[in-house]
Design goal:
The structure is a single chain. The relative contact order is 0.15. The longest helix is centred in the middle third of the chain and has 34 residues. The chain is mainly alpha-helical and about 425 residues long. Helix content is about 80%, strand content about 0%. The protein contains 21 helices and no strands.
């Protein structure tokens, strides 16, 4: 490895400290490496442009972001929340369970943890506050359930992982279903004990009329994941095409069924989609530059040789990777963890003969837990801002939730069938 390999990583660190866009830091670091190594900048441009134009699956990312923005802007979240409340009914801490169930349903439409926390989370926090729940707990449970978003299909992190690893997006989506339900169960158990201990409110009794009404109102929105997943698993559509169909479907129901969207709000949705997609694609562009550096300097080969002598079993390797990515998740952006560090360790995944679908679901859940982890967990800042609580109070309530989620991560890590069982139903 060359001495100047340190340059791009040093520039990335400086960009992080100065709060520059991470993608910009990655591109500047790549340019600096190319210049010092005596490589034409045109080669970097070719690498980035070729990567972006040939990764067809990446088109799904802005489509899923657009779908999430439409859902958040057209009051669909209200319909989902009321439907979830009609299913939970009368039990202690009912709205806590509604929070979990609504996040699972919303996850099938958006594929984004931040979209869940900022859109559906606003409604969840408002309702729980009205019913007298402790606000730090309310924000903690809302942030924790948002983690389900990118695990249950569709999922933006799964799309990026598929681009890096060559894994099937359809199998990744299918593999995330059982882990998402495991997350719901472990969070639900925690809510049960806390609700009993703190005597949280009992939910209202749900009449048959209310159940039918809420189901009927939510049905068009509930069909979104059905349309998307059936399209993929029947082979009628690719994941990218399914993303386009889902985006068009949500637009139609928002305009024609719920009538909560207009041309002016659509303009704002498109602007937000462009802004969010641009930030993600800037990081992806920078990652292509870094991937060339990793390949040219044979970093993966060096890491494989070093690790094969230190770690003797796949189980020990998975433990080490989980610890590494939990630390990274607490310090750096999820996209950076996925796009910079995953290409380095993917050869190790093959070396230890670990299924790439199982590994992908595991590592994505790991990174989502990072969104909850101090000091830089994005979900902490989003939900604390919505709930108007101090970060310190919220972190105190979030730490037990992180332990609960780590328990789910352990199950998913060491019981591969929790991920692979559902993938056996598709080719």
């Amino acid at each position: 490895m060359s001495w100047y390999l340190i340059i791009p990583f040093f520039i990335l660190l400086i960009a992080f400290i100065l709060r520059m866009p991470i993608g910009m830091g990655m591109l500047v670091g790549s340019i600096a490496y190319y210049l010092v190594a005596g490589i034409s900048i045109g080669s970097l441009v070719n690498t980035v442009c070729y990567g972006l134009t040939n990764a067809y699956i990446l088109i799904a990312i802005p489509l899923f972001i657009f779908t999430a923005n439409v859902m958040n802007s057209s009051e669909v979240t209200d319909k989902i929340f009321n439907f979830a409340r009609s299913l939970i009914g009368r039990r202690p801490g009912a709205t806590g369970y509604v929070n979990i169930l609504a996040s699972l349903i919303f996850a099938g439409m958006t594929g984004s943890a931040v979209a869940d926390a900022s859109g559906l989370g606003m409604l969840e926090i408002s309702q729980m506050k009205k019913e007298g729940y402790d606000m730090p707990f309310t924000c903690a449970i809302t942030a924790s359930t948002a983690v389900i978003g990118p695990i249950f299909p569709p999922s933006i992190p799964f799309v990026i992982y598929a681009m890096i690893s060559g894994a099937s997006v359809g199998k990744l989506f299918m593999g995330g279903m059982v882990p998402a339900i495991i997350l719901c169960i472990v969070i639900g158990i925690y809510v049960y004990f806390i609700s009993k201990k703190r005597n949280y409110p009992i939910g209202e009794k749900v009449s048959l009329k209310y159940f039918i009404s809420s189901t009927f109102n939510a049905l068009p929105a509930l069909m979104t994941p059905v349309v998307l997943l059936l399209g993929i698993y029947t082979g009628v559509m690719t994941p990218t095409e399914a993303g386009a169909v889902a985006a068009a479907y949500t637009l139609l129901i928002s305009f024609l069924v719920y009538r909560t969207l207009n041309i002016r709000s659509l303009g704002k949705i498109l602007l937000n989609t462009i802004r969010t997609s641009g930030a993600i694609f800037l990081v992806i562009a920078g990652a292509y530059g870094f991937s060339y550096i990793i390949t040219a300097e044979q970093i993966s080969k060096v890491v494989v040789e070093a690790m094969s002598g230190l770690v003797s079993s796949p189980m020990a390797f998975l433990l080490m990777i989980n610890i590494l990515f939990l630390i990274l998740g607490a310090l750096v952006d999820v996209n950076v963890s996925e796009l910079v560090f995953l290409p380095i360790i993917m050869p190790l995944v093959h070396y230890y003969n670990i299924d790439i679908i199982h590994f992908g679901v595991m590592i994505c859940l790991n990174m989502m837990i990072g969104l909850l982890t101090p000091p830089f967990g994005m979900l902490l800042f989003v939900t604390a801002g919505i709930g108007e609580v101090s970060l310190k109070e919220m972190i105190r309530e979030t730490l037990p939730m992180i332990l609960v989620l780590l328990g789910a991560l352990a199950i998913i890590t060491y019981i591969p069938e929790s991920v692979l069982f559902m993938t056996r139903f598709i080719k």
